[in-house]
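User: Second chain of the day. Same drill as before.
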Amino acid sequence: MATAQEAIDALAAKQGVVDSVTPTNLSVTLQDIYNDPNDDPNVIIVTEAADFGVIDGSKTYRISGFVDITGAGVNLEIPAGGINLKGNGVEVSRLICSDAAYQLFTSPVGGSGNVNCKDVSFQIDGAGSSVMALKSATGNEAFELVDVNFIDCTSCGYIDNYRQGRETGTGRFGGSPEIEFRGVWSGGWFVETSVCRVLAAGFTGSLYKAGVGFLMNSRFRSNANIDLPAGASFFDFAPANFVNPSTVQMDRVIITRNGVINSSDTNLTPNMAESDLSSSWKGCLGLDNTFEGGKIITLTEVDTVIATPGSYVTLVSGSHLASELQHFDNPAGTQLRHLGIQPRAYKIVAHLTIEGPQTEEIAVRVRKWDDSATAFVDSLPLIVQVNSLVGGRDVAFFPINENVTMDQNDYVFFQVANISSDSDVTLESSSYYDVNAR
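Assistant: Same format as last time:
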């Protein structure tokens, strides 16, 4: 390493300082001379289109200032070795191209590698142009956008068959910055922090949408803060695009349209609802949330036949209504079945009114089918004496509050026993039970 004075002299010569050389009249510090990116053979400083050359995945391309490559006829073809693109901040480093039908990032035959972009903005605003037209080389590549802004972009383009992607500190301002996912993704896309504002008034697409053959094996997760113009949507996915339940995860998303919150706006997510099995939307503002569970209410009455005192049988209703089903269905009778995988912890709340002979003891219990164990599991019974009421209606009231763990395809229902005799009992209309996530 050079001595301090040698370093000062070298830096002074670079800056044109020839007299009274001291550290105080140099515009940078001694440390800068050792960390000068211009002297790093692994860093390519980009001030014009020609600086890119053939993309080398072992180099870092540092965008110096606003670099306008309009008319240069240069596409950044990302090889299997990938690309590392870095700026000095989204406000001071920007790649700009206003050419029509232009694609900034493209793939060669055989596909592209990892894409890592940090501290830079893209302004690709020509008619019919896009930021990306990328296909993964092996299906095991990743996409990283860290502190990246899309400014007035005509389109963000498409990403095909990548393993996974992540956005941290991204922004979409102006234009119509739609990203299209294509092919099979073994991982997911994680929007850690993102904001979207002042998009083009005529934009009627989606910030994210499913393209040809799109299938995601892991999650699409977002906590974005979004304002959309009329006609635009947040994402256009369908449940069939996601292999596993609860993997479209909206976590405290804030979404408005022209500044107005309206969670009943079906065009925010046109082909997916909060109740779909693929959805898990929690703590959102402007987007409906997912409340896993369901409800059964008795509409008409029929006797439950008791053959043997003290023997449990299924408590039946003449007819019933199943409602508020999210990640649950009603496969038979008054059963409620869990179709999802998360959450697993549920609470059963019931108010059952059962008619029977005066003063006889009636017992009710929750029965759960444990699908993984192929066996039934029973709760402790609640035993209540039938009231001796004035008139012909003698009933027992069962307020039930039971915690239960339910995995995929587990279901619950109620059983009843007449402890005192073999007299039949009747579940009265308006009796109900709810299953809700704890």
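The chain has two helices and 37 strands.

User: Great, on to the next one.
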